[in-house]
Amino acid sequence: MTTYKTVNPADGTTVKEFETLDAAGVERALADAHAGFQTWRKTSPKHRAEILHKVADLYTERSDELARAISLEMGKPLTESQGEVELSSNIYRYYADNGPALLEDEKLDVPGAEDTVLQRKPVGALVGVMPWNFPYYQVARFAGPNLMVGNTILLKHAPNCPQSALLMEEIFQQAGLPQDAYINIFATNDQIAEMIADPRVQGVSLTGSERAGTSVAETAGRNLKKVVLELGGSDVFIMLDSDDMDATVESATRARLSNAGQACNAAKRILVAEEFYDDFVTKLTASFEAVQTGDPLDANTTLGPLSSQTAADTLIEQIDDAVAKGATLLTGGKKIDGPGAFVQPTLLTDVTPDMRAYSEELFGPAAVIYKVESPQQAIELANSSAYGLSGSVWSADLDKARDVAEQLEVGMAFVNEHGTTLPGLPFGGVKRSGVGRELGPWGMDEFVNKKLVRVS
Ligand code: NDP
Is there a contact between 440 and 411 (Cβ–Cβ < 8 Å)? Predict the structure, then answer.
């Protein structure tokens, strides 16, 4: 049974608990989202954009309060929380600014008729299932484009982020969105399955684990509902060469340790050209050891706790498994004593395919380092993963780096930056990292009826 509650991961205290929906609540939410769609779909794109502009402004105005709420619930250092609030605000603003133009009829130049256009029509109520690692940003990627399109939303957030979930709903209402256009639901997984199956729901978007994605996609498939899935990753940071090793090491540290390493597109595998390996690894180890672990609400903290004790225990099991089978621990590898869910920043080498750390996603502050003899070997190792979310290539030789980036089997490839997320750039992966794209015009095109109207 899912329990929605705020547990401060920095000290283990339970702050507040919330009731889960009952059967009548599920029916009410479905009926409201469906009824809401009948009116929201008829509003003009201009009106919807005005509301999203207000949402964006409210995220900025209420930034401190919003940032503190996620730091408390999932342990992100306050400065990172503020960054997430700003990014979320920018996503709503992007759709407010660009949505009306993106929704204009597209004239198709196909002969034989007076007029041929493609219209983008909303499809109905959607279920969103979101995780705790970026509580506002993940929702913004889904709610921004879909509210702009004219769809309505039933949002099930992770059980450890109930207060942030309620704050988002409150902001939508404060901005003037009808109450039945965005409905927060404290639902169980069975209730989510029931909602996906209900004819009043037209699709589901999930960000989270493969386990969650397969379960939700199975229900959706059985009921012929469209899905967007943004799942895990085991993304590479490929270091081919550097003319500023300190800066590259700093980038690698950030790419792995931001958000305590709990990002789908974090640099979980670091591949280093052999001629730079010793220097890079020595510096990266020192950089990991210099990180300030502590209370997320303390301004000096650069690494907070993991989101829960379970998350910390899972990561330690993966590290212990690797070490027991012969991996080398360069630094870290242990939980930090105390009530919080803290894990030391960890670097592993000599990881082989029989170890969990080779193939599984490490969702915390732990990276695996591999020495590579050539760009080709780096590409093969990168593409051997079952995941295909993103990857980055680092080199002073941009042509060489671009060539490697183009051969990565991923949804997003970067040269000399890692994991950049901007409202206008597509976000999503291939293989077991998911299906569909979020953000930019692509995120607005997922749950729309691309309707042909041809007049002869
Ligand atoms: P989950 O994938 O279980 O949780 C993400 C969301 O999915 C939550 O709201 C969760 O709710 C929901 N969910 C899970 N199973 C179902 C289901 N069958 N039906 C409906 N909703 C469901 O992630 P965890 O928190 O358990 O984290 C485990 C691992 O998942 C991490 O270690 C990481 O590898 C990966 N992960 C990846 C993320 C990403 O950004 N790609 C984000 C979060 C996790 P509930 O908890 O109520 O089941």
Answer: no
CA of 213 to the centre of ligand 1 (A): 8
Residue 140 beta carbon below 6 angstroms from any ligand 1 atom? no
What residue's CA is closest to ligand 1, atom 20? Answer: 189
DSSP conformational letter for 303:
B
Task: Judge if the beta carbon of residue 363 lies within 6 A of ligand 1.
Answer: yes
Q: Which long-range contacts (CB under 8 A, 24 or more apart) does 107-114 make?
A: 108/452, 112/456, 113/454, 113/455, 113/456, 114/455, 114/456
Residue ranges in 264-366 assigned as alpha helix (H)? 274-289, 309-324, 356-359
**In terms of DSSP H, where are the helices of 62-112?**
63-74, 78-102
Tens digits of pLDDT across the chain (456 residues): 679 999 999 999 999 999 999 999 999 999 999 999 999 999 999 999 999 999 999 999 999 999 999 999 999 999 999 999 999 999 999 999 999 999 999 999 999 999 999 999 999 999 999 999 999 999 999 999 999 999 999 999 999 999 999 999 999 999 999 999 999 999 999 999 999 999 999 999 999 999 999 999 999 999 999 999 999 999 999 999 999 999 999 999 999 999 999 999 999 999 999 999 999 999 999 999 999 999 999 988 999 999 999 999 999 999 999 999 999 999 999 999 888 999 999 999 999 999 999 999 999 999 999 999 999 999 999 999 999 999 999 999 999 999 999 999 999 999 999 999 999 999 999 999 999 999 999 999 999 999 999 999
Q: Whose CA is nearest to atom 13 of ligand 1?
A: 212
CB 321 within 8 A of CB 333: no
Tell whether ligand 1 has an atom less than 6 A from the beta carbon of residue 129. Answer: yes
User: Of 80, 84, 264, 446, which one is the catalytic site residue?
Assistant: 264
Asked whether 231 lines ligand 1 (CB < 6 A), one says: yes
Query: Is 161 part of the annotated catalytic residue set?
Result: no
Known catalytic membership, residue 169: no
Question: To test ligand 1's pocket by mutation, which of 133, 190, 209, 318 has the most ligand atoms within 8 angstroms of CB?
Answer: 209
ipTM of the complex: 0.95
Cβ(2) to ligand 1 under 6 A?
yes
> Measured in angstroms, how far is the CA atom of residue 347 from the centroid of ligand 1?
25
Number of neighbours of residue 225 by Cβ within 10 angstroms: 21
